[in-house]
Amino acid sequence: MRLKLPIKLNIVPLILGILCALGNNPWALWYLSILSLISWFLLVIKNDVPKKIFKKTFQFGFGYFAISLIWIVEPFFVEPWVHGWIAPIALIALPSFLALIWALFAFLGHYYLSSIGIVIGLSLAEYCRLYLLTGFPWATISYTLLDTKAEKWLSLLGPYGLSLFLLLTCFIIAYTLKIRTKINIFLAICTIITLFFVPYFFQKQPQKNLGVSVRLIQPNAVQEKKWSEEFAPVFFEQMIEMTAQQPKPDLVIWPETSLYLPYNSAFDELDRMRKAAEESILIFGALQIDPTNFLKNSLIIENKNQETVFYDKAKLVPFGEYLPFINLKSYFKISEQSNLFGGGFKKGKGSKLLNLPNGLKFVPLICYEAIFSNFLKPSVTHADFILQITNDAWFGKSIGPQQHLAQLRIRAIEYGLPVIRVANTGISAIIDSNGKVIEKLSINKAGYLDSFIPSRKDNTIYGIFGNLIFLSLVFVTVVIAFLNKKIINRSNIRIEN
Prior knowledge:
Blueprint: H1 12-21, H2 30-44, H3 50-68, H4 80-83, H5 86-113, H6 116-128, H7 154-178, H8 182-196, E1 209-218, H9 223-226, H10 232-244, E2 251-253, H11 267-277, E3 281-289, E4 295-303, E5 306-312, H12 326-331, E6 354-355, E7 361-366, E8 385-390, H13 400-415, E9 419-423, E10 428-431, E11 437-441, E12 447-454, H14 461-465, H15 468-496
Parallel strand pairs: 1-2, 2-3, 7-8, 8-9
Antiparallel strand pairs: 1-12, 3-4, 4-5, 6-7, 9-10, 10-11
Helix pairs in contact: 1-2, 1-3, 2-7, 3-5, 5-6, 6-7, 6-15, 7-8, 7-13, 7-15, 10-11
C-alpha cells in the first residue's frame, strides 16, 4: 500500500521560494533564505531533466517574488475605482515574469554546464534584471544577507557578485549533503567560513561626521490627499513651519514632489520657501513643465549664494511615468505623453555630481533610481554623500518603504558613502557609510529630523570597478565548469570503452 503525501511534491519549490523571500526586509530571516536555497538545490540536482529544472526554478522563483513584491498592489489602490482591477494582475504577472527569467537562465546553465550551471544561470539572471524590459532589480537574492557579516562583501563584489557567492555556497552545501566526499566537505566549510567569517577581518574606518547640519522634512502627505486642492496647501504649510524652526541647519531637505504646483508657476510658494529657509541651503522635489509640454520630476537646490541647480529624474517608472518600448508606441499610434496615471514625463540625462555652496558634493537619487546599483557609479568617486528624495506614499502601509530603505543601506555599503533619505511619508533616515541607520523618522508620521551628515569611507573596490568584478567571476566559473564537464565526459567515454 502506497502512502499519499499530504502536500504534492510540485508545490515544495513554491514553499521554499516563499521561505527564501523572508530573508528580505522587513523580516530579515536570513537563515531561512540559506536553508531554503540549500533545500531547493537538493531538489534540482537530484535529476538531470532540463524540463524539471525549469519547472522547479519557476515555482521557486514565483514563491520568492510573490512574497518579496507583495507591496506591488498598493499603487493601484490609491484610486481603486480606476486602477484597482490591475492589482491582482500585477501580483501574478510581475512575479511570473521574474520567475520565468530565473527558470530560463537556470535551464540554459544546466543544459550547457551541468548542475553548477544552475548557479551561474541564476547569478546572470539577477544581473540581467538590471536591464531586461527597462530593468527591475528589486529583491536581488543577495539582499537577504543584509544585517549579517556577509553584507560587507558588497563593497568588494557588489550585489551580483555576492549573489553568485551566496548561491555557490548553498549549492556546495547541498551537493555535499548528497555526495559526502572529503573534498566536498572541505569546500563547503571553506565557502561558509569565507562568506560569513572572513568579513570580520575587513578593515574598519572610524565613523565621523562632516560637521554639516541637515534637517529632513517629512510632511506625511498621503497619496489620496497629496494633490487635492483642499489638503495640498495644508501639507505645504506644515513644511514651511518645520523649515522655519530655529536654530537653522546648513541644509533643509524636502521630499520628492513636495511642491504641490509646477516649479514654473509656483512663484509665491517659492518666495515663502526661501524666506522660511533664510540662510540655509534648500533642497526639494518638484515637477517642471518643459517647453514641449512634458513633465520633469526634478530635485532643485535653492540658495542665495548660487544659481538654482536642477537634477531631472533619469530612471522613470515604467507605465507610471512613461510608456516603455518607444517603437511599439509608434506602431500602435500611442501618444508619447500617454501613461497609466496621466501626463508623460521626460527623463533626465543620467547620474551626476552636484555641488553645494558650502563645498560639499553629492549624488542625487529620486525614488526609483535607488534600486539600480550601477546607476550611481559614474558620479560617486568624488562625492561626500548620496541624497535620495522619494515619495513612498504610493506604498501605503505595506512593506514597500522598508524594502526601499534597505536598498539605500545596500548602496551605502557598496560605495562606502553615507546616505540622506528624505521621504514624504517615511522612512526618512540618516545612513552611515556602513549601511547602518543612525537616525530616522518613522513611517506615516509628520515631523522633522535635525542631524549631521556622516563622513564617507575611502573608495570601495565595487565603487571603482562596478560589476566588472562579478562578470570576471562568472567568466572564471564558466571556464572551470566547462573544463570539468569535458573531463567528466572523457572519463565516461573511457569507462564505456
